[in-house]
Amino acid sequence: xxxxxxxxxxxxxxxxxxxxxxxxxxxxxxxxxxxxxxxxxxxxxxxxxxxxxxxxxxxxxxxxxxxxxxxxxxxxxxxxxxxxxxxxxxxxxxxxxxxxxxxxxxxxxxxxxxxxxxxxxxxxxxxxxxxxxxxxxxxxxxxxxxxxxxxxxxxxxxxxxxxxxxxxxxxxxxxxxxxxxxxxxxxxxxxxxxxxxxxxxxxxxxxxxxxxxxxxxxxxxxxxxxxxxxxxxxxxxxxxxxxxxxxxxxxxxxxxxxxxxxxxxxxxxxxxxxxxxxxxxxxxxxxxxxxxxxxxxxxxxxxxxxxxxxxxxxxxxxxxxxxxxxxxxxxxxxxxxxxxxxxxxxxxxxxxxxxxxxxxxxxxxxxxxxxxxxxxxxxxxxxxxxxxxxxxxxxxxxxxxx
Length: 402
Hints:
alpha/beta; Rossmann fold; seven-stranded mixed sheet
C-alpha cells in the first residue's frame, strides 16, 4: 500500500496549497483511467471540471487534509459544491487555471449560450505535461538509487555498455587520450630507457550518440484487466523518458505510438490523457508506424521501446480491414508481425521489449524479436518498469571509446 502523507498543518487552510503540490497529489488521477470512461465511443472525449473536482476531493480526503466535521458536513449536503469545502476546492481549481496547469474549455448549449460550468472540459497545458514528466522522472530515478536494475529477470541480453572514465595501458589502435599524471609516474619510476608501450596510460572516454526513439505503448484491453492498471505506469514512464530526453539529451528525438486494433502516433501533449482501447494487439501495425517515423530521423542510433502485456492478436489487411484473433498466436498474425521485425533489423533498428506479463506464448514471441534485432527483453511489473526503461535508455546512449 502506498504511503499516505498527512498534511495536518493544512486543516482549514486548503487555500495555502500551491498548485504544484496539488498537481502532485492528483497525478495518478490525471494519468489514470478515472478521468475518462475507457469505453466511451467518443475518442475525443476529455475529462470535465466535475472530474477534476472529484479527483481533488478524493486526494484531500485520502491525505486527511480535511477536518472531519467539515467533511461530514459536505457529505451530508445536497450539493457539495455549495459548501465551504466545495468552495475551497473550486478556488484550488481556479488557481490551477491561473497558474497555467490546466486550460478550461466551455461547451455551448443548444441555445448558443454557455452550458453547465460543471460540464466544461479541461486540457492539460504544456506546463502541466512538463511537470508530470519531471515528477515521474524524479520518482523513477529515485527508485534507481534504491535498487539495482541489474536484478531483473531477463531471458535475452544484448551487450551492455559501462559508463566509466577508467585508466588503461595503451594498446595499438587506441586513441591517444593520454593521462599525463599516470604516464609521468611510470616515467619517473622506470626511466625513459625502460618504458614499454603499456606504460603509456590513457583515459577511456565516453561518447554520447544521438538517438531517435519511438516508444510503442500497448493500450489494448488487457492493460486494465484482472484488477491491475498497467497503462497508467506505462504513461508515466513515457512522460519521464520525454522529460529526460528534452532536458538531458537535446539532440535526441522521441515519439510515441499507441497500438491496439490499429496504431496511431500521439503527441506528448496528449499522451497523459490517452486511454485504453480498442481491444486487440496490433503489434505489426505499431512496428510499421514506428519504422516510418524513424526513417525520417538522421541519427546514430534508432530504437523502438515496446511496452506490452499481450501477444499479437490483430493485423491490418491491405484493404484497411482489421483481422483479429485473440486465441493463441495466429500464424497469419505472427508471420506478418515477424516480417515487420525483420524490416527493423534490415533498417538497423533495435527493438527492446518490456513485458508486463509472462504468458508462455508472449515469452516465445519476444524471444524471437530480441534475437532478430539484437535487442533485449525484460520481464517487469507496473511497479518497476520505469527503472528498467530509463536505465536501458541511458546505457544504450553511451559508447566506450579508447
